[in-house]
Amino acid sequence: MSTNHHPPDARALQPRPRVLLTGFDPFGGATLNPSWLAVQALHGRRLLGHTLVAARLPTVFGDSLRTLLALLAQHRPALVVCVGQAGGRSALSLERIAINVDDAPIADNAGAQPIDTPVAPGAPAAYFSTLPIKAMRAALRREGLPAEVSQTAGTFVCNHVFYGLMHTLATQPELRDTRGGFVHVPWLPEQGTPSMALDDVVRGLRVALRAALVTPQDTPLAAGATH
Ligand code: PCA
User: Fold this and answer.
1) CA of 23 to the centre of ligand 1 (A)
2) Residue 22's domain is classified under what CATH number?
3) How many domains is the chain built from?
4) Per-residue pLDDT tens over the stretch 143-194
5) Which pTM does this prediction carry?
6) Which of 49, 57, 191, 197 has the fewest Cβ atoms within 10 Å of its own Cβ atom?
7) For this structure, is 158 an active site residue?
8) Ligand 1 atom showing the smallest separation from residue 33 Cα
9) Can 148 be counted among the known catalytic residues?
10) Domain that includes residue 67, residue range
11) What is the pLDDT of residues 25-68, one digit of tens each?
12) If we measure between CA atoms, which residue out of 152, 207, 65 comes closest to residue 55?
C-alpha cells in the first residue's frame, strides 16, 4: 500500500468547536427571563471559529442540572457560560465562586424549596469559575458596559446549576479541557429598576465570550486585571 498519499486532514473532519450558553425559564411569577432572551439571540452565531449553542434550563432544582449535564454530553463544548437573572443588580455580574448548598429563598418552578441541602453530597464546599473573570470585566468596561466581579451567585437555582457545572467539569475526564462559569444579568427595563436593555446584555455576553476565548486564564496584575 502506498505510503505517500496524504491522510485526510483531521482538522477538516472536526466539527467547529462549540460554546454552550444557557438561560433560564421565568420564575417567581415573572413572565420573562432576560437570561434566556439574551442567549437565545446568540444561538447559531459564530465567534472566533466557535459556534454558539443556546439552551434553556428549567428554574427547577435537579431538573435544571440534569438538562445541563445532557447538553454537556451532547455538545462537548470548549466553553460553557450559564446565564441567569439577578433582579436588583445593575451590572453584568461575573460570578467568581459556586458553593455546595441549596438554600432557596422562594419555591422553584416545581414548588420545591430546599433548605441547607448540599448540591452534591460529599463534594467540595466550593469551586471557582474557570473563566477569566477579570479579563472579561475589563473587556466589558472597555465597551462602556457596566460589569462587576460577584462573590456570590446566591443559593437558589443559579448557584445550584453553577456548582453542578463546575463539579462536573472538575470530575469528568472527557470535559477536562472545558472551561466554564456563570454570569448574572440585571432585569430588563420592563421588569423594574435597576435594569439593562436587552441589546446591551446580548452585546455584553458577546464581548465577555470573546474575552474568555482569547484569554486562557486570568494573569494576576495583567492589564485590566486589577481590583
Ligand atoms: N435566576 C435565579 C434562578 C433562575 C434565574 O434566572 C437565581 O439567581 O438563582
Assistant:
1) 9
2) 3.40.630.20
3) 1
4) 999 999 999 999 999 999 999 999 999 999 999 999 999 999 999 999 999 9
5) 0.93
6) 49
7) yes
8) 6
9) no
10) 15-223
11) 999 999 999 999 999 999 999 999 999 999 999 999 999 999 99
12) 65
Tens digits of residue pLDDT in 101-156:
999 999 999 999 999 999 999 999 999 999 999 999 999 999 999 999 999 999 99
Beta bridge partners of 147: 92
Helix (H, G, I), strand (E, B) or coil at 40: helix
The CA 47 to ligand 1 mean position distance, Å, reads: 26
Any residues with CB less than 8 A from the CB of 58 and at least 6 apart, and which?
24, 25, 64, 67, 109, 110
Residue 2 falls inside a structural domain: no
Between CA 97 and CA 206 the distance in angstroms is: 22
User: Which candidate, 70, 74, 52, 54, places its Cα nearest to that of 62?
Assistant: 70
Is 82 labeled as catalytic in the residue annotation?
A: no
Catalytic residue among 50, 75, 82, 95, which?
Answer: 95
Residue 117 in any domain: the answer is: yes
